[in-house]
């Protein structure tokens, strides 16, 4: 006769297999710089264009949200500061049709680089060094889980 395992062991195994799969954490790293070549599509008679192309350095990382055809910055739920390091935290809503993006901002341009946050993520944290002047340095990869 084969002895059956204790009931507690069966319950522990059942709980292990019934538990939802752990969400994989994602680290999204903004490129440290981008090269921009602006384009002007409209020009009034009598005006000339001087385009200032160049290398733009990373200045911030934040979360943007898309709903349908509209996309914009999502305000963080919390901002914490420890010394000169500042962290912003966003809680992401599941199932409301929103698509979340890490938006990388660069100095001297309104252009953004965007990378989609995995649909399984429920929280993202962006960290950087904050200076008294309001400038941000050492923008860290955005952690989403």
Overall mean confidence score, pLDDT: 84
Class computed from helices, strands and strand pairing:
mainly beta
Shape summary: globular
Largest sheet: 6 strands, antiparallel
Total strand count, please? Answer: 11
Rg, rounded, reads 23 Å
Helicity level: under 10%
Task: Give the termini separation.
Answer: 48 Å
Oligomer: single chain
Order of helices and strands: HEEEEEEEEEEE
Portion of residues in beta strands equals: 35-45%
Q: Give the low-pLDDT segments.
A: 1-21
Question: How large is the count of helical segments?
Answer: 1
Number of domains: 1
Summarize the model shown:
By secondary structure, the chain is mostly beta strands. It is built from one helix and eleven strands.
How do the helices and strands line up, and which of them pair or pack?
Layout: H1 7-18, E1 26-28, E2 33-36, E3 54-67, E4 70-73, E5 78-82, E6 85-91, E7 99-106, E8 112-116, E9 123-130, E10 136-137, E11 142-144
Explain this structure.
The chain is mainly β and 145 residues long. It has one domain. The protein contains one helix and eleven strands. Strands 1, 5, 6, 9, 10 and 11 form a six-stranded antiparallel sheet that branches. Strands 2, 3, 4, 7 and 8 form a five-stranded antiparallel sheet that branches. Strand 9 and strand 10 (136-137) form a beta hairpin. The longest helix is centred in the N-terminal third of the chain and has 12 residues, at 7-18.
């Amino acid at each position: 006769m084969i002895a059956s395992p204790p009931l507690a062991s069966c319950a522990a195994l059942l709980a292990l297999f019934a538990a939802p799969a752990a969400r994989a954490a994602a680290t999204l790293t903004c490129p440290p710089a981008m090269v921009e070549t602006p384009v002007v599509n409209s020009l009034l008679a009598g005006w000339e264009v001087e385009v200032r192309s160049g290398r733009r350095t990373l200045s911030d990382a934040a979360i943007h949200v898309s709903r349908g055809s509209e996309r914009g910055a999502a305000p963080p739920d919390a901002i914490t500061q420890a010394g000169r390091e500042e962290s912003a935290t966003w809680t992401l809503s599941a199932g409301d049709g929103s698509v979340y993006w890490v938006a990388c901002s660069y100095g001297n341009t309104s252009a953004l680089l965007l990378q989609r946050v995995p649909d399984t993520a429920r929280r993202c944290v962006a960290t950087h060094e904050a200076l008294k002047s309001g400038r941000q340095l050492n923008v860290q990869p955005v952690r989403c889980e």
